[in-house]
Design brief:
single chain, mainly alpha, three-stranded antiparallel beta sheet, two-stranded antiparallel sheet, 48% helix
């Protein structure tokens, strides 16, 4: 029973951390090891291997839609974005810091790779949907045109959360392939039902006092 449990653990930990199976030699060495802390040691070893960064950069790249698009994201920007993700994971950057850098990104998308986050989706509503889904595990898209039939989210929730992204600006760079992301300091989102301008409001939370701050920075702190 002990050996079977170790075999299951070994297979699972390799697949979860590296996306591959252990070699025969690695499996035999682990199963023969009688040290009580061998599982913890194996995990530490696997986290140092390059496959860990590659696998988890790929997972995040899929969630963040890191792909070239002639109308949105230039191939150079895509590669800079992907390299930034991989390097962040390799350097053991905390997930909350990665998310904060994405949400508050400014500058050219070649020199500030996290800024590519705001080129993948360019409408406040779509950005809000992605942030809610990827970072909070909440699907709010059903509330775009009616109150959600199975969840607590209303149209007001949808558009007030979208308002956090209504002041994201984009402008050209000296390089025609590059785009610059900046805070415009103006711009609002309206509820399509009644045309009401929506103040930024946290999902399931309060309406914050922005005090002239970048709305995205306030959201990042809350998130």
């Amino acid at each position: 029973a002990e050996t079977a449990s170790d075999e299951v653990f070994l297979r699972r930990v390799y697949l979860d951390i590296l996306g591959i199976l252990p070699s025969v030699e690695e499996a035999r060495a682990f199963l023969a090891d009688e040290a009580p802390d061998k599982r913890a040691k194996l995990i530490d070893t696997l986290l140092e291997r390059p496959e860990f960064s590659e696998l988890w950069a790929m997972k995040w790249a899929e969630n963040l839609q890191v792909k070239s698009d002639p109308n949105k994201l230039d191939p150079k920007g895509m590669h800079r974005y992907n390299d930034w993700l991989r390097q962040s994971i390799t350097n053991n950057k905390p997930i909350d810091q990665i998310v904060r850098e994405l949400l508050t990104a400014e500058g050219g998308n070649f020199t500030a790779p996290a800024a590519n986050f705001y080129l993948v989706q360019q409408q406040p509503e779509m950005m809000a949907e992605d942030v809610a889904q990827v970072f909070m595990g909440i699907q709010i898209q059903c509330a775009q045109c009616h109150n959600h039939p199975f969840e607590r989210w209303t149209m007001e929730d949808y558009y007030s959360f979208s308002a956090f992204f209504s002041q994201v600006g984009r402008k050209a760079s000296s390089d025609p392939r590059e785009r610059i992301i900046y805070n415009r300091g103006s711009g609002d989102v309206k509820n399509i039902k009644d045309g009401k301008v929506m103040a930024p409001k946290f999902l399931g939370g309060e309406t914050p006092d922005l005090q002239g701050r970048d709305r995205r920075a306030v959201l990042a702190e809350w998130l």
